[in-house]
Amino acid sequence: MLEIKDLHVCVEEDGTEILKGVNLTINEGEVHAIMGPNGSGKSTLSKVVAGHEAYEVTQGDILFEGESILELEADERAHLGLFLAFQYPVEVPGVTNKNLLRQAYNTIAQEQGREELDPLQFEDYAKEKLDLIKMKPEFIERSVNAGFSGGEKKRNEIFQMAVLDPKISFLDETDSGLDIDALKTVANGINQIADDDNAVVMVTHYQRILDYITPDHVHVMIDGEIAKSGDKDLAIKLEEQGYDWLIEPATASVNGEQQ
User: Fold this and answer.
1) Which residues form the ABC transporter domain (predicted)?
2) N or C: which end of the chain has fewer CB within 10 A?
3) Alpha carbons 42 and 206: distance in angstroms, whole number
């Protein structure tokens, strides 16, 4: 579904290189977790895939269903079925969840040749999705994230994901700032959305969300590259030992020998 090939990325404003040759393949029906210390490039990777204009791809390619998406704007990528849940969801006062999501749903449906929903049809459809995140029906009448608690904002991201039904979702630290009950609710929603026809990529610092979502693949990013990949056991080892055992072998060699 998604193939990232030798991806090098710098910050558009000052040219600072963030990603230094990322390679990653994501297939339908898979759940991937991307872990790593602060500043390793995890969030940058998710933003670049989604089409954030603050970054410049200097080398490599991103293929979605076999076609390069580098020249596509963020909204065009969303129309194809790409979704990004934000680490820090923004507030949009005056725009209700219902209006925003119905417009987004119908725009994507039109692009993909699916049936559009009228206001009453959409309201019924959206209320079904609310059950995934244990929110009351009046939630869809509220302005997007305005006055929401941190947990409500993160649940709203998963609600949007459920409504829009993307082919591949990047969840940028959706677990950060959640108490244990909210974490379980968010994880349960993700588990119910994930199926054989889509893919989920979770960007996270911590192993704790993986207690509730079992990833097929775990990748560790160090200094803009994927330093190691494995299964859930790798995440457990990281929780126990941290990242030092991966960072140290990646340091510069001295006299031709690794430190």
Assistant:
1) 2-248
2) C
3) 13
